[in-house]
Write a structure and sequence with these properties.
Elements: E1 3-4, E2 7-8, E3 63-65, E4 77-83, E5 92-97, E6 106-112, E7 115-121, E8 126-134, E9 137-138, E10 144-148
Antiparallel strand pairs: 1-2, 3-4, 4-7, 5-8, 6-7, 8-9, 8-10
């Protein structure tokens, strides 16, 4: 078992294989050993992905349509489509937040030519906010306000 400042080191106790001759006879005496573990300062060599690539896009040219942009029903799939074909290159980001919690599952399916089908299922009645972004810009109409009767 290893400790540092009276605190267990993560992963302790460790198993160690000890080889070599016994230092004491096997007549019931216990043999003990000790080791010194020195701490090493870790240098940061982590790769950072904090910067996004620069995309050439225009969210104002994205169009969307479908009943799922305005209304949804508890336990039923709500669907809408998003057409980004004239808006350049970027990522489609969709989030649905309800009266108390975010929507558990939102499916975004690319159907070709930068066109997408979005499906989600809500679990409670109330007012939801549906955010649709092309990159970091909201598309026209977003955030949408969805009512669940």
């Amino acid at each position: 078992t290893l400790f540092r400042s009276a605190t267990h080191i993560v992963g302790s106790p460790f198993k160690a294989k000890v080889t070599g001759q016994r230092l004491v006879s096997s007549g019931g005496s216990m043999e003990t050993s000790s080791i010194l573990v020195e701490s090493v300062t870790r240098s940061s060599t982590e790769t950072s992905y904090s910067t996004m690539p620069k995309f050439a896009s225009d969210a104002s040219k994205v169009t969307s349509k479908g009943a799922g942009l305005m209304k949804a029903y508890v336990g039923q799939k709500s669907t809408f489509t998003v057409d980004c074909s004239k808006a350049g290159s970027n990522m489609l980001l969709v989030g649905v937040h309800g009266p108390t919690i975010p929507c558990e599952e939102v499916s975004v399916k690319h159907i070709g030519n930068k066109q997408y089908t979005v499906t989600y299922v809500v679990k409670e009645k109330g007012d939801y906010v549906l955010a649709v972004k092309w990159g970091d810009q909201h598309i026209p109409g977003s955030p949408f306000h969805v009512t669940v009767p």
